[in-house]
Each structure stands twice: as C-alpha cells, then as structure tokens.
Specification:
Low-confidence stretches: none
Distance between the termini: 15 Å
Number of helices: 12
Number of strands: 21
Length: 422
C-alpha cells in the first residue's frame, strides 16, 4: 500500500476527554473514530489490526476443535423470557419495537440463542461433547462508556460455548481453553494473569478472568507473591490479606480484563430444557461452558502495553503492516524514488506487507513522526545519504538506533518476517 493512497489522516492533538494512552494513540494514528459515546468506526489501519487479532483468535479456536457459527444480533424476546433475563440482565437490554409492535433486543450475549439452536439437535450422550464459537457484535447498554475501545456499547466479541455430558469432561475442556487463551495473549505479546472471578450476570459455578496489570485499569486484583495465585477483589473481597492457597501475602494491583471464561454447568440448559439421554436412558440437562474475548478491547490492551512517548509499537502478529518503507528524496529524487519503488515491488512479490511512504508533500520529520505513531515493526529508509553507501537504513520500532544494511543484503536481513497473516 502506498501511503499517498491510504485513507488515513494522523493528528497531532487529541480531544481533551481522551485519557487512556491506547485511546490517544489509536485516535491520533487514525485507527479508530468515535461516532457516539461508546461506538467506534474502524478505519483502514484499525481494521487491519482488528483482522490480525481476529485471525489469531480464530486459529486457536479451530485448534481446540471448535466449529464456527454466526448467530443473529437481533434476538427473540421469547428466549430471554425463558431464562428470566428479559428484565433482570445488567446492563439492561437495548430493546426494539418493530412495525408489528413486536419486541426484540440487540444481543449483549448469546447464551439463549446458542442453547435454542443446540436443544433442537442434541438428543443423546453420543452427540456430546462438541463446541461452537462465533465472532459477532455485542450491544451493551452501559451507563458509562469510557476509555475508547476498553469499554464500549457496541463491540465485537469471540464467544465459545462447549457442551458436555459430564462434569469431568467439561472441566478438562475448561482447562484446555485456559491454555488456548494464554497462547492467544502470548501471540499478542500480552502478559496476563488468570484470576478467580465473579460469574456476574452470565452466572455459573466457576469463573476466571484474564487480566493484565495496568495503572489505568478499573478492575482490582489480588496476586500472591509466593505462589502466583490471583483473584478479583469483587470475588475475594477487599479486606482479604493472605492467599487462600498458601497463606502468602496478597498484593493489590489495577488491571484490565481481556478474557473471561465460565463453567456454566446446567444454568441455561435446565431452564431451557436442553437435555440429552445418558447411557442409562435417563434424560439429563447438558453441561455447558462459556468463554469470551472482546477483540477491540484486546487491541486497546496491546497498545496500553506496547507504546512509547512517540506512539504505538505493534507486536509482529498484530501490526497493520510488517514494514514501513520511507523514501526521502532531496535535490535529485530520481534515484531515491527508483530504488524505493524497486524495493516496494520486491517486497510485494514476496507477499510481505509493506506501507510505502511515497508522499511528496511531507517533510522527513513528518514522515518519521507518522511512522513512530503508527508503530509498524520495521522501518526502512531510502535517502541520498544511504544510497551513497549502497545501503538503506533499517530500524526496528522497538529499538532506539537504526543500522545501515547493504541493499544486496536486505532480503536476507528481513527474511525472518512472515508473509501476510490474513
């Protein structure tokens, strides 16, 4: 992609009410744009990052053996009445009245939908276990949407639901999902802590959150320095001082939730009559697990961790492009442009993702400032100074100093960078 053609206008300033660093840089870099409170547009750069994160998550879900579905955002009131959540869920539903005066709701979650689909198809223990996942927009009627992508009223979420005939099988799968989540966050270069949590309005017998420590976080967690145990203060209580596992000292930290998993048991299957016949011929409610990750929040979390005073430092697998190629012609632009154009074509032939800053109306300082703000992992600069040494300047966004690399050695130097990830 040539930057002169990219639909992107970076900003030097951000609105006064933008506080969190991820919100600041994603707005300034023109990754996202707010429409109304808690609702965002994803611009080309932002959507590329979103698709990278989506692909990471989808790969790990498929590795678990889960099958992908897509459920409607507009949901039937009758299903919500079955679980008695039409009036009680918090935050309350976005309710709509259609032209036939029939009430529906925009789904904040999909337990009712998934159980209705499953109960029509599952009859025997031989049909179990299995798991289904989707990546779908959610609508949460939040009282206070804040922090950019960290707390929204409309956002994309990955839901995974698993269905089992016995508790042992559900616990085994629950633990597999834990490991899968750690893989997802590791690929996003995000260090997380898995902590015991309150099930909240989703419910269930057991629940864990995946948290990363951040001063801007609204959640409070307690971490044991001795054994690593963690719990949400909402679950454990603010006054607890000693670890319930080893009696070590608990340390309180601010954190941001990036994933939440639930052992639902029979909470939904029982009230919605989602049953199966066991080996002994008895009818029993299906056991369920539920496992969620908010994609935009994960994107914001990555920025909260990976940035400096100049802008974002995207991890390799989440970056909108892998290489930022910059042309800096001066008095004789012909040769500089010619060499840069050839490098651009060569990178594209190798299926490398490259953003080529070919803009003629921007100074070197402006190009470098945009490059640092956008945060692509590798910067390659072609100028008269570098060409005098038959070289280009290569700098990793995560490092301070650039290095000169001979043009004929450049391909081998960047060979470690993968082809596109979506």
């Amino acid at each position: 992609m040539k930057q002169s053609q990219l639909f992107c206008k970076t900003k030097k300033e951000v609105p006064k009410d933008v506080v969190e660093i991820s919100h600041q840089y994603l707005v300034r870099g023109d990754f996202i744009e707010q429409t109304i409170s808690g609702v965002y547009r994803f611009l080309p750069l932002g959507f590329r990052v979103y698709k990278k994160i989506e692909k990471i998550i989808r790969e790990e879900m498929l590795n678990l053996g889960a099958q992908e579905v897509l459920l409607p955002a507009l949901q039937d009131k009758k299903l919500w009445l079955e679980t008695n959540r039409w009036q009680t869920i918090d935050p309350p539903l976005f309710k709509l009245l259609d032209r036939h005066q029939k009430e529906t709701a925009l789904g904040p979650t999909h337990e009712e939908e998934i159980v209705d689909m499953v109960r029509k198809r599952i009859k025997s223990y031989q049909d179990l276990p299995f798991s289904l996942f989707q990546i779908q927009n959610k609508f949460r009627n939040e009282m206070r949407a804040s922090g950019g992508l960290l707390r929204q009223r409309e956002f994309a979420m990955k839901d995974l639901y698993s269905f089992h005939s016995n508790k042992k099988d559900l616990i085994n799968f629950y633990n597999k999902v834990k490991k899968s989540y750690f893989k997802i966050f590791k690929r996003c270069e995000l260090k997380v802590q898995c902590v015991e949590a309150s099930p909240g309005t989703i419910g269930g017998e057991l629940s864990h959150e995946f948290m990363f420590v951040a001063e801007s976080g609204e959640d409070r967690i307690l971490i044991c320095k001795k054994c690593g145990y963690g719990g949400n203060c909402e679950k454990l209580g603010e006054k607890i001082k000693k670890c319930p596992k080893c009696q070590g000292i608990l340390e309180k930290k601010n954190s941001i939730e990036v994933g939440h998993i639930f052992y639902l048991g029979t909470k939904y299957s029982k009230v919605m009559s989602a049953n199966f016949r066991d080996r002994d011929g008895k009818e029993k409610p299906i056991l369920m697990g539920c496992y969620g990750i908010g994609l935009p929040r994960l994107m914001a979390a990555v920025v909260e961790v990976h940035h400096d005073e100049k802008g974002i430092i995207w991890p390799k697998e989440a970056a909108p492009f892998q290489i930022h190629l910059i042309s800096l012609p001066k008095t004789s632009p012909g040769r500089v442009d010619k060499v840069t154009e050839k490098l651009y074509r060569d990178f594209k032939k190798r299926n490398l993702e490259v953003l080529y800053d070919d803009r003629k109306d921007k100074s070197a300082g402006e190009k470098f400032a945009d490059c640092d703000l956008i945060g692509i992992p590798v910067r390659i600069v072609v100028s008269e100074r570098t060409l005098a040494k038959n070289s280009v300047e290569v700098k990793k966004r995560s490092e301070k100093k650039p290095k000169l690399v001979k043009i004929n050695q450049l391909n081998s130097y960047i060979r470690k960078y993968p082809p596109p990830t979506f």
